[in-house]
Amino acid sequence: MFDTMTMTKAVGALCGALLVFLLGNWAATALYSMESGGHGEDGPAQAYVIDTGVSEDGGAATDDGPSFADLYAAADVAAGERAFGKCRACHKLDGADITGPHLNGVVDREIASVGGFAYSSSMADHAGASWTPETLDEFLKAPRAFASNTKMAFAGLPRADERANLIAYLATQQ
């Protein structure tokens, strides 16, 4: 079954495949080099910066839009209900705790006050204060900036109008 000609063809195919991979590597290295190539050898490699609206410290970039009070006064509860879809995987509105504590009655409730839920130490440090709409806005903007070791893995809601709509919806859920 395996004669000399078949073995010669198999070895030749293997050598040919390796040669193609070697030449492909050489061409890719020449085309896509990460070296500066004479363009500022002392500095970092050139790259494009894309503005994502988030500052380097992890918080959302400041904008000079309307104040939170104005946004909250004009908030759309129906849009807030749609925004709650981002929270639904970890929070319930029926009094049941799952990954996160329940959120019914959260507006003006004391922070870290849901009995039986294990809060992180930085969230427990806020106990005694209450979840006013302004405090919720600050927290939802950047949860890790509000409570550094919070268990909430959500990055936050960068849009102020979306936060105001969500808080207005949560205010209706008692």
Secondary structure elements and pairings:
Layout: H1 4-31, H2 68-73, H3 77-83, H4 121-124, H5 133-141, H6 143-146, H7 160-171
Helix pairs in contact: 3-7, 5-7
Explained architecture:
With 174 residues, the chain is mainly α. It has a domain at 68-171: Cytochrome c-like domain (Cytochrome Bc1 Complex, Chain D, domain 2, Orthogonal Bundle). The chain contains 7 helices and no strands. The mean pLDDT is 83.
Q: Summarize this, please?
A:
The chain has 174 residues and is mostly helical. The chain has helices at 4-31, 68-73, 77-83, 121-124, 133-141, 143-146, 160-171.
Task: Quickly name the level 1 CATH class of the domain at 68-171.
Answer: Mainly Alpha
Tally of extended strands? 0
Helix content: 40-55%
Number of helices: 7
Structural class: mainly alpha
- Note poorly predicted spans: none
Question: For the report, how would you describe the main beta sheet?
Answer: none
CATH architecture of the domain at 68-171: Orthogonal Bundle
Radius of gyration: 28 Å
The end-to-end distance, rounded to whole angstroms, is 79 Å
Strand percent estimate: under 5%
CATH topology of the domain at 68-171: Cytochrome Bc1 Complex, Chain D, domain 2
**What's the CATH H-level superfamily name of the domain at 68-171?**
Cytochrome c-like domain
Mean pLDDT: 83
Which series of helices and strands comes N to C?
HHHHHHH
Overall 3D shape: elongated
